[in-house]
Amino acid sequence: MQRFAILYFFLGIYFLQSAPLLPFVQAKADINQDKVGWEVDLSRISLNFSQSSLTNQVPYKGFSDSNLKGSSQLGLQFFLNLDGNLYAPRYVVFNSIYAEYGFTQIQQANKTNIINKNLDKLLFSTDYTQRVWDFDWGFETFEIGPYIRSSYQTEFNPTPKIGRRHIVNYMAGAKLFDGKYIKSLYIDFFGEHDFNINTQLNGMGVEIGISLEYKLNSSIRWTYTMNLKKYLFNDKNSKILPDYQFLMETKIETKLFKSLSVSPLLRYYVLKAEDIKEPASNLLLGVSLNFGKVLLPPQQALKEHEFLY
After folding, report:
1. 30, 58, 163, 271: which has the highest count of C-beta atoms within 10 A?
2. 162-187 burial, b if ≥16 CB within 10 A, otherwise e?
3. Using one digit for the tens of pLDDT, what is the confidence trace for 121-165?
4. What is the pTM of this model?
5. Contact present, 181 and 215 (Cβ < 8 Å)
6. Hey, how many other C-beta atoms are within 10 angstroms of the C-beta on 4?
7. Residue 30: strand, helix, or coil
8. In a 10 Å sphere around its CB, with 0-12 CB exposed, 13-18 middle and 19+ buried, how is residue 218 labelled?
């Protein structure tokens, strides 16, 4: 049933591509003439000093969710995001490596230290996106197309008594991307499998997400990302039964020098299980020192008056 739903989805997109375009849609064959070839973007290396506030995490200890580890204490987090994207006239292949690791250190009265892991994630993903339509609304330009994506997620350090997570995700959906203000807006159907014998998660559901960016001036920008996963089906043999996950992160970056910036950060995560009444959450407030740089910019494909036929 799932395979047929994905097939019908892409057939619908194919027929939409041949439908008459609206007046504000550019009908050029090469719908993005500004980008072609490889783009390597080290979009984020950040060191975050924060205070986290966790609630109701004890009933969720079997989920081995790194967002719900540790205690409500001052801590240190590290984030990395490296993208290697291939732009072609009719498609884009988005490849990404994302890593996050964080811990809190608590000094007790007897001078001993307790270190709690509160973030631990390593994610590899690849994404094929078909470039169907190019919208130009004057104040905003973006592209829309269907996409398929696969990813593998693990941890740097295995969680005691549970072990290292080995999560494989695959998605099929549609997205808006490469906008001036709306960097990404997507909806997809996903399947998720965790090969850890202590969780054995096999689930399916719907995912939506958005990334926004607004430049207040040449030195200050506001960013916002949100992701919501709703599980519609969990296999009866799964040892954990997630209902939904919600993640929101926002910050205001102020450039200090070239590619170096500083920003206050607010990050909020919620996990709800089908068999647990109350959700668990992690509210993280902090200040980040960020570095980001396009290591290899894409090349100019065509001049303004040229078209591909």
Report:
1. 271
2. beebebebebbbbbbbbbeebbbbbe
3. 999 999 999 988 888 888 888 899 999 999 999 999 888 888 899
4. 0.78
5. no
6. 8
7. coil
8. exposed
